[in-house]
Design a protein that fits this description.
The structure is a single chain. It is built from six helices and no strands. It is mostly helical. Helix 1 crosses helix 3 and helix 2 packs across helix 3.
């Protein structure tokens, strides 16, 4: 899952004049709070996340989640199953850090290899 923070927002800002002010208005916060968020001295609040995502979608931007979802939707059903298995494998590995780093070469190729 993507972390929506000041760095995430900075990567998507174009530098267009007035863009930060528009973002502040979309979030319902002051420009000062947006500036603090971008500098890392303020966290994006949970209730602001949907507004941040909508702001960048309205600007024509895509999130990493949007990109993965679009790729997934274009896969045939069998490949969707395999992709889901692989992502669940990666999540399980990430949830068990004592197992060490994930080696994609050792990931199961099919459900029967689990």
């Amino acid at each position: 899952m993507e972390v929506i923070d000041g760095n995430w927002i900075k990567q998507r800002l174009t530098g267009r004049r007035g863009e930060k002010t528009e973002l502040a208005q979309a979030l319902g916060i002051s420009l000062e709070k947006v500036t603090k968020t971008l500098s890392g001295s303020r966290r994006v609040q949970p209730e602001e996340i949907p507004k941040v995502l909508e702001f960048f979608r309205a600007q024509g931007g895509r999130t990493r989640t949007d990109t993965f979802a679009a790729i997934f939707e274009h896969l045939p059903p069998k490949l969707q199953e395999q992709a889901e298995e692989f992502l669940l494998y990666l999540k399980a590995k990430a949830d068990s850090p004592e197992e060490g780093p994930v080696d994609p070469q050792k990931a199961p190729r099919h459900a029967s290899e689990k």
